[in-house]
Amino acid sequence: MRIAIDAMGGDHAPHAHVESALSAAAEWPDTHLILVGDPEVLQPLLGGAPHNITIEPAYEVIESDDEPVKAVRRKTNSSMVVAGRLVKEGKADAMISAGNTGALMAIGLLVVGRLKGIDRPGLAPMFPTLDNAGILALDMGANMDAKPEHLVQYALMGSLYRNKVHGIREPRVGLLNVGTEAAKGNELTKAAFELLEQAPINFVGNVESRDVLERPCDVLVCDGFSGNIMLKAIEGAASVIFKLLRAELTASFTSKLAAGVLKPNFRRVRDKMDYNEYNGAPLLGVNGLVIKGHGSSDAKAMKTAIRQTRTAIGNGLIAALADEFSGK
């Protein structure tokens, strides 16, 4: 399998991406990793790279503050666009980027292209949960507006992803809402609820955001606006909680002693909420495997994204999605 990595995108590029590629290449010799970026920058970092890592030249970079669509159209020799082109042309089975999210969405639509039968591709990250199984949520920001039919497509795509990549036979699908009662919500969620009840999925009803981390379902569907707000709220809350704990545990000599005793416990809690363990959100609904890494991905997080990408390729995710929607 061949995976193109946008080696110049993200806060810790290119060093973290090269480090993760070297580790992944050694662990999975059957995987060909294509680092897309400036060879003069990448080659010194690679050193004596194994045979299953190559460099695809790209001399421009889409920055985090670039206007997405304009950047994709103007920076045609950027690492992100070139990686997308490799997928489009069948020279790579997938691409991974930790760069500009909006630009990656544009590449999915303008370069890779939508799957037949899909109206709106959705970004589907994994949320950590208390039982470590995680919950797949989509859409988390690829589209700010949605119709009820789009949420049904998200539910079908999310179910297939959890089945193919995580081996869940009948994934439970929930609808993000302000209450669990069927009649709750706005016009979008009320209409979507009725359609989801009729869809060929294991629909378990409405889910409140406060329950998400306890995994009330395996797939959570919502529009991109609500989903992105929930995502940022959870990330922010986790960050603040850890800051408060750190402040309290270093406030006095006694608390420092207690912190020393409890350090292993706190480390386990931190690891449960660590996005590095869940890195790699697929853009579901495009005609190729496009994976979004967290912007601050380090080498560990990027390797997690590579591992998840390998699993998706090996289980024929894109072919399964194409078969599901080809007649719709």
Automatic annotation (TrEMBL):
Entry EC number(s): 2.3.1.274
Role: Catalyzes the reversible formation of acyl-phosphate (acyl-PO(4)) from acyl-[acyl-carrier-protein] (acyl-ACP). This enzyme utilizes acyl-ACP as fatty acyl donor, but not acyl-CoA.
Subunit structure, as described in the record: Homodimer. Probably interacts with PlsY.
Catalytic activity: a fatty acyl-[ACP] + phosphate = an acyl phosphate + holo-[ACP]
Keyword Transmembrane belongs to the record: no
MF GO annotations: phosphate:acyl-[acyl carrier protein] acyltransferase activity
InterPro entries: FA_synthesis (IPR003664), Phospholipid_synth_PlsX-like (IPR012281)
Keyword Cell inner membrane: no
Organism field: Cohnella luojiensis
BP GO terms, sorted: fatty acid biosynthetic process; phospholipid biosynthetic process
Cellular component, GO, one term: cytoplasm
Source organism, top-level taxon: Bacteria
Pathway listed: Lipid metabolism; phospholipid metabolism
HAMAP family: PlsX
Protein name: Phosphate acyltransferase
UniProt signal peptide: none
Subcellular location: Cytoplasm
Pfam families: FA_synthesis (PF02504)
Family: Belongs to the PlsX family.
Protein keywords: Acyltransferase, Cytoplasm, Lipid biosynthesis, Lipid metabolism, Phospholipid biosynthesis, Phospholipid metabolism, Transferase
